[in-house]
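Mods, move this if it's the wrong board.
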Amino acid sequence: MKIVGLMSGTSYDGVDVVAAEFTRDGETLTLRPLGHRSLDYPDDLRAEIGALLPPAATTIEAVCRLDNRLGEVFAEAAAAGVELAGGAVDAVVSPGQTVFHWVEAGRVRGTLQLGAPARVAARVGVPVLHDLRSADVAAGGQGAPLVPAFDALLLDAAGGPRAALNLGGIANLTVVAPGAPVLGYDVGPANALLDAAARRFLDRPCDLDGARAAAGRVHDGLLARLLAEPYYAAPPPKSTGKELFHAGYLDDRLAALGEPVADDVLATLTELTARTVADACDRHGVTEVIAAGGGVRNPTLRARLAALGAGRWRLRTTDELGVPAQAKEAYAFALLGWLSWHGLPGAIPSVTGASRAAVLGSWAPSGPPSATTPPAPPLRLVVNP
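Not the wrong board. Structure tokens:
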């Protein structure tokens, strides 16, 4: 079965597109990556998304316009994925762009992703899976993170506790260990606050390669204020996003410090991400951390993570397992599409806190024939480059 997976994360800088072929042999599901691409959003679209995100006020008209504009972008991305697959696929997974994740007192009440899936389906002519988070939320879960379903199949816990780390706008962690339920949650910001600082101080979308952070020094006062955030001490299951870690949040923490040097702010935010991730890895006693996401392209952040883990856990990337680090989440969503197609749950209750494991998503315009008895779920995932 060939599936195109799309992903646009909390950094909202573009769409990652992958094509994947899945074959099953007993308990083993084999993923053959067929290729991946990244399509950058134009500057005006990034600005349009940013203007709608919390804590900004918005209108229903703005939401409607952005929903349909994103649908056109995702349709173009899906068509590129079909080309990667050789011209024909069975399904597309288009999870959309998250614009709001409604959390009250640690409980997720709702979540909203935009991206007009009907436009995607009209463009590619195959069923499109969308709205992947709502079923888990309806079952009492966080609706995030969903990538642990991929991690749990891919990582072998037999050799000791291992972690999969994604460094997107938000850093999230999956932990697998022998004889223990899969654990996964959002640790805190990865690129979200770094990118906000780059826009404020550098008038750029990011600190390329962490160069300015490498030139700065950690500001102890700012770091202490940032680490005092109650979210870090909250137990999992938990999830977060730009609703908490946005530009205004950073401005509030900077307000009492005057106007610190830009490089020092970026160095401090890099330390914040590295410190919170390393603390989580240490808390779970992992021996290896396998990283993916845009943050792995930041050598300053990677070096700091490796230094904090030295002697306790080893830092690697998913490239070593055959999964391109920049495209891992899109491949994970392709896997979720395979599971939903076969009537199998894609969310893990021990991760999200849901009362039951939910089959994820809705199909546009229609989904696969409903099976009276879904097949047994696979127990492992192997990658065949």
